[in-house]
């Protein structure tokens, strides 16, 4: 080997020009891989910016037409729907109401854009008076009785026309309960994108403002995962796949890239990473202060998520990235190329 003869490797050779760099680049971002979250509220004419998430809005159903047009124009072909109900109660009734906010949203989206992939978040926390993901008895979230509500919710989303359901509650057995309920209702073709490895994370803070879903007492540590655990994430993912998950989510993304990478090594199902609200808010806040270059930071972060092994990215940055590409506002040719 030439290294032994006193010479050294010149890895810089392939970095000299943008042409060469582009040719040997291993990871690219594609707008097709983005899933854009939508927060939908009751009422008319509502377009309310979320304080801790600049550029993200709560929208009423009548505003969805314009939103969809914008997304499709930008090349974003998938959304993840969250609803903010009119009324919250102990049993999360609006979550599975055929005329609930998500069900109305799905019908409207599918009417306006039949090809848009409409994914629905299946959870109770936005719909319960106490803000917890399940039924609460004696101050505890009870697992098995909650499964029935989740299954009903998923079926009602499928009935409204959802292309895929995404359970985010982290109850044990929910994927199996949802799969069986969907099949029984005749929705054998509706896939489940399960939030398989979802951590009890401080990075969901801004989302809870957007979705009005902060728990009234306690926290989510009895069902969401402990941040220290990686092997347990693999067990969660394996369990969900066995129960019938067609694709899985690791969430949050940035502090859990090792989990994404390990999941990619181990499993063959498609993997999505959720680049969550707190991750978005940090970038926005620093950028507003002029402390970082937003464009470059966002592209680098999302490239890192893809490099770790996620093929889909659920991200609030989706529109910005698509727009930078569209308007040629990408600073350098390198960044242009990163977008593939
Ligand atoms: C639960 C749900 C949450 C998020 C997505 N689905 C909040 C939570 O578990 O508390 C967080 C997403 C984000 O922070 O962007 N319905």
Explain this structure.
- Helix 3 runs parallel beside helix 4 and helix 4 crosses helix 5.
- The protein contains twelve helices and twelve strands.
- Helices cover 39% and strands 19% of the residues.
- The protein is globular, with a radius of gyration of 21 Å.
- The strands form two sheets. Strands 1, 2, 3, 4, 5, 8, 9, 10, 11 and 12 form a ten-stranded mixed beta sheet that branches.
- About 2% of the residues have low confidence.
- By secondary structure, it is an alpha/beta fold.
- It has a single domain, classed as Aldolase class I (TIM Barrel), CATH 3.20.20.70.
- Bound molecules: ligand PBG.
- Ligand PBG binds next to helix 6.
- This is Delta-aminolevulinic acid dehydratase.
Q: Cα distance, first to last residue?
A: 36 Å
Helix fraction, binned, reads 25-40%
Q: Would you report the number of β strands?
A: 12
Q: What top-tier CATH class fits best?
A: Alpha Beta
CATH topology: TIM Barrel
Radius of gyration: 21 Å
Instruction: Quickly give the structural class.
Output: alpha/beta
Report the total helices: 12
Write the layout of secondary structure elements.
Blueprint: H1 18-24, E1 34-41, E2 47-50, E3 53-60, H2 64-74, E4 78-84, H3 101-112, E5 117-122, E6 135-137, E7 140-142, H4 143-160, E8 164-167, H5 174-184, E9 193-198, H6 205-210, H7 231-243, E10 247-251, H8 257-266, E11 271-275, H9 277-288, H10 294-308, E12 312-315, H11 318-327, H12 333-338
Parallel strand pairs: 1-3, 1-4, 1-12, 4-5, 5-8, 9-10, 10-11, 11-12
Antiparallel strand pairs: 2-3, 6-7
The structure holds ligand PBG.
Ligand PBG is lined by residues 121, 123, 125, 168, 204, 207-208, 220, 276-277.
């Amino acid at each position: 080997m030439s290294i032994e003869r006193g010479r050294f490797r010149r890895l810089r050779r392939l970095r000299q020009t943008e042409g060469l760099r582009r040719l040997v680049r291993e990871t690219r971002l594609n707008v097709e891989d983005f899933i854009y979250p939508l927060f939908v509220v009751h009422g008319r004419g509502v377009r309310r910016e979320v304080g801790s998430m600049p550029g993200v809005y709560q929208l009423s159903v009548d505003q969805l037409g314009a939103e969809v047009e914008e997304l499709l124009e930008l090349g974003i072909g998938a959304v993840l729907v969250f609803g903010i109900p009119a009324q919250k109660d102990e049993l999360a009734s609006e979550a599975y109401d055929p005329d609930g906010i998500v069900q109305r949203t799905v019908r409207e989206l599918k009417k306006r854009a039949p090809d848009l992939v409409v994914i629905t978040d299946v959870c109770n926390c936005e719909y319960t008076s106490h803000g917890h993901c399940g039924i609460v008895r004696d101050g505890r979230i009870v697992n098995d009785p909650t499964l029935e509500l989740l299954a009903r919710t998923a079926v009602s989303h499928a009935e409204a026309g959802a292309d895929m359901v995404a359970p985010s509650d982290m109850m044990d057995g929910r994927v199996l309960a949802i799969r069986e309920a969907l099949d029984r209702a005749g929705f054998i073709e509706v896939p489940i994108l399960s939030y398989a490895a979802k951590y009890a994370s401080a990075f969901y803070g801004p989302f809870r403002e957007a979705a009005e879903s902060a728990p009234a007492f306690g926290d989510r540590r009895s069902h969401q995962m402990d941040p220290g655990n990686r092997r347990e994430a693999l067990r969660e993912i394996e369990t969900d796949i066995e129960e019938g998950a067609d694709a899985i989510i690791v969430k949050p993304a940035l502090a859990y890239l090792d989990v994404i990478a390990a999941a990619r090594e181990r499993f063959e199902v498609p993997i999505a990473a959720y680049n969550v609200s707190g991750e978005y808010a940090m970038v926005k806040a620093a950028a507003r202060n002029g402390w970082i270059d937003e464009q470059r930071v966002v592209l680098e972060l999302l490239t890192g998520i893809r490099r770790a092994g996620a093929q889909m990215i659920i991200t609030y940055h989706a529109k910005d990235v698509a727009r930078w590409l569209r308007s040629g506002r990408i600073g350098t040719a390198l960044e242009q190329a990163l977008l593939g």
